[in-house]
Prior knowledge:
The structure is a single chain. The protein is mainly alpha-helical. The chain has a domain at 31-63. 97% of the residues lie in helices and 0% in strands. It contains one helix and no strands. Residues 1-63 are annotated as: Disordered. It comes from Romanomermis culicivorax (Nematode worm). This is F-BAR domain-containing protein.
Amino acid sequence: MKKKKKEKRKKKKEKENGKREKKKRKEKRKKNRNKNKDEKDDKEEKKEYQKHEKYDQEEKEEN
Length: 63
């Protein structure tokens, strides 16, 4: 009887640990995705800024 209860508790603990680890991995992926998205947005903003910068420079040269 005691052995069964012990095994049951052990299985329950392992299951909880698995859920916890799965949640950690999920959070890590989510952070990574957000980080990559932010970097991509920054690059796009930089490109956009450079376009405007170039256009302004051309305008100054014409005048």
